[in-house]
Amino acid sequence: MNTTPRFQPRLLRHLRFVFASLALLGATTAALAQTKSPTVTIVPNTPQTVKVGQPITFTSTATDADSSMEAHHLDWRDPDGRWKWQGTATGLVLSENSEKWFGPSASSSRSVVVTPERAGVFQVRFSALDGGNWTESTIIDVTVTDGNTAAATASVTISPTETQTVAVNQPVTFSSVATSATADITAHNFDWADTSGRWIWDAGADAAALQLNTEREVSFTPRATHSRTITITPKKPGTYKIRFALQRNGSADWTTGQEVQLVVNPRGNAGGGRNAGVNAQYYKGTDLRNFAGNATVPNIDFTWGTGGPIPAVGGDNFSVRWTGFIEATEAGGNYQFTTRTDDGVRLWVDGKLIVDDWKNHSVTERTGAAALTAGQRVAFVMEYYEADASATAQLLWQPPGQANKSVIPPQRFYRAASPSSAAIPATDNGARSTAFDGTRGSR
Which of 24, 43, 53, 81 minimizes the number of CB atoms within 10 Å of its CB? Predict the structure, then answer.
């Protein structure tokens, strides 16, 4: 007679299930650890103020849970807005190479002495490379004065301060006041950058794109204040940067004012037409399902930081779908489209999925191509989600003949296929049926 308790086989089955679940949990935890981005610190982590020639030391520790980190760099941007990795930044001398490369590693520490050679506001950060993606530390502002009080007491304004939108050959006027408590202003210049981001003094800048009614550069004997007004007549469409700058006592150091965007539309269309803009649909959660609101935006150029597009979705765990049409320039050929996002993104142009990067990551660029004819309008859909921390979403392009990629300007976006057709409605029912017949990526 068998005296073994009848419940024993059932107990054994339960124990096997528990052990199998624990093994699966361990494998899942290991897989998650492999995809974790590095952590990058910077010290000091608050804004700094030093004099020209006064060194300051920045330290950083980068750690990576999956031991696959490949680089640990110091990045910096000069007062003219140029990053060191762009090859044109000036004004800082480092105690060692800004770039540090190595084999797969779990950690890296750096200590770099930075010595400024000119006045202005620099920006410094560290970054780490893991699996083709960069993770960045907090950006630190470093204000550099020229050794006296002039840098703190000189300023230059611009008016108007908001983005200006005009048509080709439509004049627009800017004014500026330069002041210095030490009465040492000797020049008051008007600066502008062309549609490729090159400032007027840079090699290759398109000097004929904007026509001025007076001299760009004005110099004079030292004084405490100077006012000027300048009228611009744009000759080519695109997005330009406008600012004024002052010089003190003829030195090589310039104090620059606020930059203002000038958007120039083609074919006499100062407003972009009644169907200008991009449809934006906002969702709670990262799966584009819980509709929260919609809007029309001029283009896709957003750096929300820890914020979000609308209060209804907050700053984390939201998603956005942008729909509409992009109009090609006067050049036909192969267009490069680039998404720059933190986190996931998908992009369709003319019905074709050309970017598919639907996963968490820090600010990352992904590029796809589409062949367009001159002036053609093609449907596009860009889907994006933000998981947590910082949020960024930008759509850039590089048309044939353009030297560098740039954010697609507002005058190239429309909510309709032609000036006379109705705009695509900004609704919650998805973009597939209204923009084009295609397949959206899997959820």
Answer: 24
